[in-house]
Amino acid sequence: MNRPAALLPTRRAVLIVAGLAPLALILAAAAPGAWIAAPAIGGAMLVLVLLDGLFAGTMADLRVIVPADAEVGEAATLTVLADLVRAGRRAQPEAALECDPRLAPGGRIALGLNPQDGTWSGSTSLTPNRRGTGTVSRIWLRWTGPLGLAHRQTSRALDSMVRVWPNIAPVRSPALQIFLRDAQFGLIARRIRGEGTDFEALAEYEPGMDRRRIDWKSSARHARLYAKEYEVERNNQIVFAFDCGQAMCEPIEGLPRIDRAVTAALTTAYVALKAQDRVALFGFAARPEVATPFVTSSRDFARLQRAAAGLDYHPGEPNFTLALSTLAARLQRRSLIVLFSDFADPTSAELMVENVGRLVERHVVLFVVMTDADLARIVAAPVEDMQAVAAAVTANSLIRQRALVLRRLRHIGVRVIEAPHDKIGTRLLDAYLAVKREGRIG
């Protein structure tokens, strides 16, 4: 059962009382016989506060509309509706909500309500900063009386759940949809001749064709120009592997690296499914956490999104030896492995480089890492004191060590993608299409 609304003095009432106290002391000192005026003024003020609270009205109903689903990093709307009886237009209702910190900084949401169609309503945006399930657990509502001396306050327990999913806004973007519509391997499921790697047939050369595709021997034999046509490579296996350890859980521009990686991976996975390739997700920290079967149709893309939502955040270091050996044992044919990871120094990356080297022997490996914007910012910052000099030298050393590890990966045959977080999705998609055109997967 909900408790009745409490009656409390407002800040205005407290300031008035604080301002009257010195006057009461001066009056008592100047005219001791008039001391009775001080408690009389205080009593009158108390009566005004009580009357103002009584005329503030009552609350008939309070509703909170919480979105059932949201995407990490994307705004979702939360709405509060209050029915106040006999409350004037000066009621100025304010609401505060307690929630999971993943839904709002500090786990607190505050908003004001405005009159609308006979009720009071207010909306605010939630921008979740982590995946998972967040709870909106309690709401407080207060509104003032006509004099602004008292306000009524009530609270209610809530049990509203918000499921925070991976961000797939790039998948819905018009630019990607136009690209898929116009791409050769787009929405039409059929054998497409043209650019690719598997030889399909000869066709008469037409203006506009790539001259490098001309088959000169056949052309000489038939006394006409003929060009080679290739079949676009399909049914490749693509595995997106996520390091869920400490380095990937550190925030970059407000969101953990792992969430940035999931968005880029799901965008490329959607394109790969449209290209009739097979896609799976693999997540690991101290041990493998998520391992999905291969998805073969774009209609099952939601399965990948649900699996990506299950990638947890881990404070410890990842076990690359166990994770990558487990992944290699699951793959029965040559595949494209896209590994999202990060590292702080060459020592922590040593095992990662060693185990990735074993994967390269049988598979095509793309290593995706986001540019460390904080290090770049420290190096580029103006030097004003010795502390800034020391920070710049240390950051520059870490950048060089980072480049050394990436150079080692390239040397053993790994394709490395390093880009800012807002460009990593585009770079990954370009790299996938390049590998597909080269026919290195199957």
Descriptive overview:
- The protein folds into 3 domains: 1-165, Sandwich (Immunoglobulin-like); 169-186 and 234-438, Rossmann fold, CATH 3.40.50.410; 193-231, no CATH class.
- The chain has helices spanning 11-30, 37-54, 169-172, 174-182, 216-222, 246-249, 257-274, 301-309, 320-330, 346-360, 373-380, 386-411, 424-438, and strands at residues 6-9, 58-65, 69-71, 76-85, 94-99, 108-112, 114-116, 119-126, 132-144, 150-165, 193-194, 198-204, 226-231, 237-243, 251-252, 255-256, 278-284, 288-291, 336-340, 364-370, 415-419.
- Helix 7 (257-274) packs parallel to helix 13 (424-438).
- The strands form 5 sheets. Strands 1, 3, 5, 6, 9 and 10 form a 6-stranded mixed sheet that branches.
- It is α+β, with helices and mostly antiparallel strands and 442 residues long.
- The chain is elongated.
What count of domains describes the coordinates?
Answer: 3
Helix count, DSSP H or I runs of 4 or more residues: 13
Oligomer: single chain
* Percent helix: 25-40%
Which CATH class of the largest domain? Alpha Beta
Terminal residue distance: 65 Å
Strand count: 21
Which topology of the largest domain does CATH recognise?
A: Rossmann fold
Mean pLDDT: 84
The gyration radius over C-alpha positions equals: 32 Å
Largest sheet report: 6 strands, mixed
Query: What gross morphology would you assign?
Result: elongated
